[in-house]
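FORM 7B: Structural annotation worksheet

SECTION A. Query
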Amino acid sequence: GAMTVSRIMIAMNRGYSTFCHTIAMVFTMGLLQSSGVAAAGYRFDAGLKLESRHDSNLRLLSFKEDSQTVSIPTFDAKIALFSERFELDSKLVVRSLRYSNDSLRNDDELRADIDYVLVGERLNTELAIGFDQESTLTTEFDNTGLSLEDNKTKDTQRYRIAQQYMLNELHQVGYAISHTDVSYQDAQATSLTDYTFNVASLDWNYRISERLTLLNQTSFSRYRPDSFFNNDSKTLAYQIGTSISLSERQMVTAFWGWRNVTSQVLSINPFTGVFNTSSTEDKGRFADISWRYMGELYQWSLGFSDQISPGSSGTLTEKQRLLLGYEWQFSPRSEIAAKAELGEQRRINQAANSNRDSNRDSNRDSNRDSDRDYRRLTLGLSHELSQRSRIGIELGYRFQDREENGGRAEGSSISLSWRWKMPTRRNNVSLW
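SECTION B. Predicted structure
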């Protein structure tokens, strides 16, 4: 407990005090402006989940199986303060991972979010601050796919501000600025790299009809890994898309875009020992398409994305993903859910991955390369015991094929869970 709090305090104060103070001041100003509304309310929700999971190959090792059983108690809480003009949401999720076969892997995870929305006659403002503290045993399948021998802590800070201005009933313009900072425990001794990722975007939306909206966005982002061979990458992108309501139950959203990535790479000549700085450029297209159908007792979802994303392998990566989801409430208290994800991940800058920091130990070998194909399937069944409690069982399957040092690996899992939700507390309060 004390160690977790101290680590959070250290991470939150790593050079971003000015930024945090600015956000806090804007939050306060927004709340003061909103206090002109005489009546407001609050809502409080909380819940507890107990889960036991067995994984046949937790770290997805190709040369042997890493069988583990883990108990995961999770507590979550959300408090919201709202009125006609604003809403302030605070969310907290804390979960503990306790492994029966290896207590050295035990860890605690935390996620904290504050979201603030101020609604004006024409101008809407959104502010968000978030902090995650997670275990690398649970984060890296979605990130690098690396299999670390030891459990490490991953800290993520997230900040975002966005505003939307309605020019008229048909046209809306806006902007968004976000900052993400990712750091790992003992990153210098692992195959992972700390990094920051900043994004600024301008948006223009045109409402063609009640069911059709045209979406445009221009964005600039910068990815900066914290490594000696710094692969500093800047991306300029433009995307155009549409959101179509095909019917009351069916929605399609589609984006197509073009991007240009330029990177500054520091390399060393293995024969002369001379350092060189080179610039690389990568141009390409990207897309994000999703479809959702909601029936009375079931729903389907289908999505495809081809996007650039930051990663902890020292470079930007291009991810192609195909997602399929299905949910069916086959009785008043029972439902089944199935999800499938097929993905392919490739580095944007191949040259940067050939560099190695000589100050880092031998663990930083070709595992740094994160090119891979992966699959993930889940099938779950849940049943409502009462208005406040629910039980569930879930089967899972994971597979990945790494192109360098890792090979093909797969693992299956089964989990049993019980969830309890406390009664929602809400009330109207006076702000005067």
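SECTION C. Observations
The longest strand covers residues 275-294. The mean pLDDT is 84.

SECTION D. Sign-off
Analyst initials: ____
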